[in-house]
User: Which sequence fits this backbone?
């Protein structure tokens, strides 16, 4: 009897094991058909862990990159002397620790590159307006002078002229630079390329200049006037030109004592709305050549919507872009303002509660928000004597900046000092993820296009009147680059 019971238990155990194996096989079969399973999750997590283990850290990457290389020399970065004077020098150098996050981050970066490569980073300012730097670079290169190792211009001056003069290196030919790395804005290379000359790049070394155009709003006035929550509109993908008109409506009041405005659009920034609404009329063909390609229907929709919210008696106004451009907002007298993010230090003068959002979409059919970027461009002079040294130094500087200057700028400078709430930080993330540099490679007639259309009221007539001139200028740019490339 005991033997029979023992045999019975053995049989039951075998049956149970067979059942479990079948169950596992069925589970595996289900997984292979694409359904979720814990087995798949464990397997994938193991693969992810294995992949992440093989991916080198920034320090490991730089140790491998710089092994056995010591230059014992100086690396001179040329930029505009007074551009954004409070922080510009600290983008590139800091001579001592000052218990100031951005300064100390730059100091740490420069100390680390000196340890890795023996390179001392220096800053050389050229001119006070931005117009002097391009001429100085062209003269230096044509005279075969080697005064500067890296060029960081004001993006409004000389970006195209330096390309057509043939004084800039093609980034695609520079060794050691890896645009797939996180410290480079890879999309900018495509936006800034003309006729297959990628003369300009954007990376974390110039992170403090990469501040796109955004909308800034007075949260206290919004509460007083019972306005809809802008953050919710943005996150629900409903922030459009029509909503901007509704948001600024019934706010403007002008009395002898005080004036309050629904919204202000500085005229020189109107081109940012062509970017944000997908209406920008400049493009490139299959040969990477600039071309004038206006979408008249889309531009007409932009004009119609903008005209309806800025016409006589409306609460949003197109205003001059001058020294007083932000005064009304800073004084608490404007609900919504189109703002050049490069002037972020002005936000410290604001005493009330405010927030930021991206520029509106044309309508809800537009898939994504789009931000107009401009700053942070960098280039190498074409007469660089040792391109391997220059390429390696620039790659290391941007990689180190991703660990030092970038977090210091966003966390300590932009977020904590200038942006006042977590939602604005989310909005900044959206802005930075949707940057377009297309507007940098352009001509005056396109920069001022929307403003001129607002005066005349006819998109097609402006296109007809300026098309040939714009095409001719683009042909000259492409011809100049081809000649001197």
Assistant:
């Amino acid at each position: 009897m005991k033997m029979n019971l023992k045999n019975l238990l053995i049989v039951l155990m075998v049956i149970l094991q067979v059942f479990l194996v079948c169950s596992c096989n069925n589970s595996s079969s289900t997984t292979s058909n694409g359904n979720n399973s814990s087995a798949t999750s464990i397997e994938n997590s193991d693969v992810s862990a294995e992949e992440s283990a093989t991916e080198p850290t920034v320090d490991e990457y730089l140790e491998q990159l710089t092994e056995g290389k010591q230059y014992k020399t100086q690396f001179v970065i040329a930029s505009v002397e007074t551009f954004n004077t409070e922080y510009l020098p600290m983008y590139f150098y800091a001579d001592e620790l000052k218990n100031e996050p951005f300064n100390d981050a730059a100091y740490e970066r420069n100390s680390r590159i000196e340890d890795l490569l023996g390179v001392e980073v220096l800053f050389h300012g050229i001119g006070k307006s931005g117009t002097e730097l391009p001429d100085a670079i062209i003269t230096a290169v044509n005279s075969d002078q080697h005064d500067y190792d890296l060029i960081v211009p004001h993006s409004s001056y000389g970006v195209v002229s330096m390309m057509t003069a043939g004084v800039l290196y093609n980034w695609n030919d520079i060794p050691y630079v890896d645009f797939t790395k996180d410290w480079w804005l890879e999309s900018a290379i495509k936006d800034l390329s003309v006729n297959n000359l990628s003369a300009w790049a954007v990376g974390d070394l110039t992170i403090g200049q990469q501040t796109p155009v955004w909308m800034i709003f007075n949260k206290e006035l919004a509460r007083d006037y019972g306005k809809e929550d802008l953050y919710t509109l943005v996150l629900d993908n409903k922030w459009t030109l029509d909503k901007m008109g509704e948001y600024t409506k019934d706010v403007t009041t002008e009395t002898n004592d005080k004036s309050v405005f629904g919204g202000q659009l500085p005229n020189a920034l109107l081109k940012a709305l062509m970017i944000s609404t997908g209406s920008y009329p400049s493009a490139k063909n299959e040969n990477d050549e600039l071309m004038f390609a206006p979408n008249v229907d889309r531009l007409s929709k932009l004009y119609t919507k903008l005209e309806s919210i800025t016409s006589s008696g409306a609460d949003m106004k197109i205003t001059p872009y001058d020294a007083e451009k932000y005064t009304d907002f800073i004084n608490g007298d404007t609900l919504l303002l189109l703002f050049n993010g490069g002037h972020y230090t002005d936000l410290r003068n604001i005493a009330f509660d405010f927030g930021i959002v991206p520029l509106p979409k044309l309508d809800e059919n537009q898939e994504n928000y789009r931000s107009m970027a401009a700053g942070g461009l960098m280039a190498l002079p074409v007469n660089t004597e040792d391109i391997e040294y220059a390429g390696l130094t620039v790659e290391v500087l941007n990689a180190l900046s991703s660990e030092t200057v970038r977090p210091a700028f966003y966390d300590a400078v932009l977020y904590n000092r200038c942006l006042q709430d977590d939602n604005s930080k989310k909005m900044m993330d959206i802005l930075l993820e949707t940057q377009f540099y297309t507007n940098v490679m352009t001509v005056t007639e396109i920069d001022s296009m929307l403003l001129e259309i607002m005066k005349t009221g006819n998109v097609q007539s402006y296109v007809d009147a300026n098309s040939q001139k714009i095409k001719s200028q683009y042909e000259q740019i492409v011809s100049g680059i081809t000649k001197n490339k």
User: Anything to note?
Assistant: The CA atoms of residues 21 and 166 lie 71 Å apart. Residues 1-51 have pLDDT under 50 and may be disordered. The chain has two domains: 59-210+375-417, 214-372+443-484.
